[in-house]
Each structure stands twice: as structure tokens, then as C-alpha cells.
Request: fold
Amino acid sequence: MTVRRGKKLTISIQEHMAIDVCPGPIRPIRQISAYFPRLSPEAPPLIPPPVPAPLYGGAVAGGGGLSPGPSSPGGLLLSPGATSLADRQSMLGSLDTSVEIDSYDSDDTTSLGTLEFDLLYERDTSSLHCTVLRAKGLKPMDFNGLADPYVKLHLLPGACKANKLKTRTVRNSLNPVWNETLTYCGITDEDMSRRTLRVSVCDEDKLTHNEFIGESRVALRRLKPGLRAHYNICLEHPPPLPSPSAMSAALRGISCYLREWQCEERAELEERGRLLLSLQFCTQRGGLIVGVVRCAHLAAMDVNGFSDPYVKTYLKPDVHKKSKHKTAVIKKTLNPEFNEEFFYEISLSELSSKVLEVTVWDYDLGKSNDFIGGISLSCHAKGDCLRHWFDCLKDKGKRVERWHTLTNELPGSTYND
Reply:
């Protein structure tokens, strides 16, 4: 660009920003008068101010100023011939629409708040502790601009009522403080390697359904046993589910077929809950002591979403049918504590050829009790059941505790109460 000697080149701030910063077109700044048009019939019609044509980065010098380049409607550069009032009004209208769209504050971009909590996994007790501390800046959910928040925990996959834990509700607050510890029992190393903890914040409504505020998910494999992990994270929207309309009928049919096939294939190994069992071969008393400690995350068998569980033990083969023992019934719970022991008088050599069957049932008044799940321990068992049985036979006099996963099928059992 050439400038005559003695003359100072003056460039407006708009032109400076267009040259140095913005490589594309510049939208005109809306004036306050555009938001308050004159509606009086005597007033002259409102004529929008002239729209300066934005410049390309490579402007052409001429006569001591900058000349505009060609443009197109819709916020792009104007052509030299498009200087009529109708063309300028049309361009201004299209620009106003784009400005309103860009400035639209949708619910997806609204801040949901932050949540602070701690996680601790204790391998010795097979327990996972989640200490919910506080939340800040939650999204208002009620008409008064506040919320009644509480925190809910789920273990994924397999989120159900059995593994759902929740805190108390804090009324009329967007910055609630809980300082409450929620504990999952029966969490094994396998669970820690494949499961995810879903932490969600909800708003409690007495007259209508509770409203979802936000959630966060933590992969349990990131935790180290015995070390407390602190989290202070922003709440997020739940991941979107694929729309059925986005798939063709053929794909939907194939996916349904595969889902049913996988469910049938895994039906025999369907998890129905956890059982904490203790075994001890007592040499002084000359027999086996079976301790039913507790259950966790049992399958719900009643319409209220709970069960009335109790546990039965058999030592088979049982010719005289005297080996059956039953615990007390714990009403309306999916995480019962029994702490009961049963004694079987038997020698160690005879015990090695026996099978211990432990079943969990739901008590129903006036009709048949529902089978929840069971396990079988013997020298022919597999996995944790086999290891537990061998530890009992090997370490005589030592009480051995182990968590077991209940399945919906127990070989050799008759599901009659």
C-alpha cells in the first residue's frame, strides 16, 4: 500500500480488526434502536443504517483508502451493485436471524453443577464406600429457583433396585452438603475390573415424578484397593440412546434376534445376587460349621420391588433328609443380614464326598415361595465355590469366608420348599 508523503493513513477499528484478526466477513453490530422500533403511525418509517461492506484480507489500495471487494447476500461480502435499500434490508434481516440463532441459550449448554465425592475399595471386606460430600451450582428445578437434590448410585451393567443406593434429600438448595457414606457389599475384584459406578443427582418432587439433574460415571478399574480417591467433577447429561427410527427394519430385527439369543445363552448363569458364606471344619466338635452371614443385591421378587428372603442349606446326599437348615425370614429387603450358623456332624473323609447346596428363597404368605438363587460347593464345583471348599478341607479349624454369586439354576436341586 502506497501513501503520499505528509499524509497520515487513517484506518477505522473495524477495518483494522478485519485485516489483522478476522479473515472472514464482519457482521454489522445491531444498534439499540433496532430492538425498539417506532410503532407510532405519525413517525417516519424506520430505515436501517447503511451496512458497511466487509473487506477481504488482501484489500486493494486506491486513492489513500481501502476499497471493498465483491460480496454475496447472507452475511458475505456485497457486490458493488447491491446498494439499493431493498438489498440492504434483505441482508440485515438475514444477519439478524443468524445472530438470534447463535445467541440462543439451549438446555444442553446450561451448566448442571459440580459434585464432590470420595471412593474407597476395601479388598479384605469386599466393600466399596462412596462418601458423597457436596454439590455446587446445581441447575434450578423448582418454581422458586431452587431444588430438592439427592444423590443416587447405580452399578453398571445391571442397574436395578437391588444395587441402587441414595442419600437423604436436602431441601431448597443449589449448594447441598450431605457428608454421607453409602456402602456396597460383596464387591469382588472381578466387579472392580468390569463395572462402572453411575453417580446421579436428582430433584425430589412430592406431587410429580422426580427430575434428573445430571450424572457422572467412574470406571471402578481406576481405583486402587485401600486408597481413597477424591473426585470433584462437573455433572453431565446422560449419554444419548440410539433412536429406533434411525435403524432400518432389517437392522432392528437382527439386533432383537441377537439380543434374545444372548439372553437365552446366559440364562443359566444369570446373576441373582451375592451371598457371604463362611465354612469351618471344627475338629473339636467333629463336624462342619456353615455360617450364613448376609446377602447383597438380591433379585426383587415381589411387586413392591423388594423380597422377603431366607436361606436354606443342604448337605447331600441326604438319605434320612435331616440336613436341611433354614434361617429366619428378613422382611422387605434386598440386602439382608442373617449371621446364623448351622452344624453338621460328619467326618473329614465323608465331607470330601459331600455336596453343600445353599439356596436363597423369597417367602410368600399363602402360596409357594419363590426361588431367588443358589450355589453348590463340592470337589466337583468350579471357580470360587471350588476354592472355598478346598480351603475349608485344607485349613481345618480355620473359619473361611467368601462371597459367592447366586445363579438362577442349581444342578441337582429340587426347587420345592
Observations:
- Confidence is low (pLDDT under 50) at residues 54-86, 88-109, 264-269, 413-417.
- The helical segments are 13-20, 32-35, 85-102, 189-194, 249-265, 348-351, 383-394.
